[in-house]
Specification:
The chain is built from 8 helices and 13 strands. With 269 residues, it is of the alpha/beta class.
Length: 269
């Protein structure tokens, strides 16, 4: 029995499809607002109900869990807490100051203490990660490569800003760094009528990130947002990404003369 701890985005849907295809036994801990309420073996739970979550997992002899989807920072004053929730919530609140992913890391520690192991989010969907290569007809030119190098260097130097996975650079200038609001809010700040097909979004795992969870995720929505912000392309890190709607994204990039590039460990040009 595998416990699927689901948040927002379409990634959980892809995980669930593969789990069903493999005829594996599963249950769902639904941390969304009831997105999976019609799915069998689904339990809608507040992130503060640790006692309930652990009881569900243990009652079903579930010793392994997999996280998929984005878990938003909750309004702690309105959380439904049980006894274990009251005990653990100070740790969750403290970790939330480092961003949404830090909340998941803290939950993983709590589950480990209860004898429950966390699997990689890509355990059943390795096809959703991109390897090194150029996935679009358009390739970065000299100016694009300079922007990419600036973005990668910036992310590597962020240090304490551990919630930042993304940065936008245009004309060798950092336009925006991803904050706690995520990629969408960052891209909104980058809109410019002055530029067209210029600048790049680079999304890399955070420093010291637990690569089992919260990998940089890109899909058609991200590509659309990049186009609206008049950017030319997206860069990800080899096998450390979740790429949804691959065919649609590549088609969109080619149609709009954008690039999708995945770099490996030595990723500076």
């Amino acid at each position: 029995m595998i416990g699927l701890i689901f948040g927002e985005t379409n990634f959980p849907i892809q995980v669930l499809k593969k789990i069903k295809k493999k005829y594996l036994k599963y249950l769902i801990i639904d941390l969304t607002k009831g997105k999976f309420k019609k799915v069998k073996n689904s339990y809608s739970v507040s992130i503060g109900q640790f006692g309930k979550i652990i009881k569900i997992l243990k009652d079903n002899r579930c010793k392994k869990v997999l996280f998929a989807g984005k878990v938003e920072k909750p309004n702690f004053s309105k959380l439904r807490l049980d006894i274990k929730g009251i005990y653990y919530i100070p740790r969750i609140i403290k970790s939330s100051k480092l961003g949404d992913a830090a909340i998941l890391r803290e939950i993983i520690k709590i589950l480990k203490k209860e004898g429950i192991r966390t699997l990689s989010s890509l355990t059943f969907n390795p096809e959703l990660t991109l390897k090194k290569g150029n996935y679009s007809k358009i390739k970065p030119n000299r100016e694009d490569k300079a922007d990419i190098n600036k973005a990668i260097t910036t992310l590597n130097r962020l240090g304490k800003y551990t919630f930042s996975q993304g940065v936008v650079v245009r004309n060798k200038k950092v336009v925006a760094i991803e904050g706690k609001g995520g990629t969408q809010k960052m891209l909104k700040r980058c809109k410019s009528k002055k530029f067209k097909n210029q600048g790049v979004l680079v999304k890399l795992p955070k420093r010291k990130q637990d690569l089992r969870i919260d990998l940089p995720t890109v899909g058609l929505k991200t590509l659309n947002q990049c186009k609206s912000s008049r950017l030319k392309g997206i860069v990800l890190k080899n096998k450390q990404n979740i790429f949804l709607e691959r065919k649609k994204c590549i088609s969109f990039a080619n149609k709009n003369k954008m690039f999708i590039v995945v770099k490996w460990k030595k990723y500076l040009y």
